């Protein structure tokens, strides 16, 4: 069975963001079809977490390379970044896990 990236959906879209912690995230890569498949494959190869959301992808694809995400997307992107940190076991120094719902021993 061929891999999805062998013959990608021409409507496949991908955007990559860079976040340095001091400014709003920047669009550093974007593309459709084969280019989108290549962006996704490269991200997976380097252990970058991938979030699939067709509506968010549509909005991000309208931005230019090097452009910061608009204020309207701050909340959703901040939630995704925060969730990705939790998945990687990263927490802020002053985070106290007050509800004891996350096992920090793993």
Question: Helices and strands: which structural class?
Answer: alpha+beta
What can be said about the biggest beta sheet?
Answer: 2 strands, antiparallel
Strand order of the largest sheet: 1-2
Describe the global form.
Answer: globular
Give the distance, in angstroms, between the N- and C-terminal Cα atoms: 36 Å
In the predicted model, the low-confidence regions spanning at least 5 consecutive residues are: 1-5
For this structure, what is the CATH class of the domain at 4-69?
Alpha Beta
Radius of gyration: 16 Å
The number of helical elements comes to 3
Look up the CATH topology of the domain at 4-69: name from scop
Number of strands: 2
CATH architecture assignment of the domain at 4-69: 3-Layer(aba) Sandwich
Q: Summarize the helix and strand pattern as letters.
A: EEHHH
| Strand residue percentage | 5-15%
**Averaged pLDDT, please?**
83
Secondary structure elements and pairings:
Elements: E1 13-18, E2 26-32, H1 34-45, H2 54-61, H3 74-87
Task: Write up this protein.
- The chain is α+β, with helices and mostly antiparallel strands and 106 residues long.
- The protein contains 3 helices and 2 strands; from the N terminus they run ββααα.
- The protein is globular, with a radius of gyration of 16 Å.
- Residues 1-5 have low confidence and may be disordered.
- It has helices at residues 34-45, 54-61, 74-87; strands at residues 13-18, 26-32.
- The protein has a domain at 4-69: name from scop, CATH 3.40.1690.
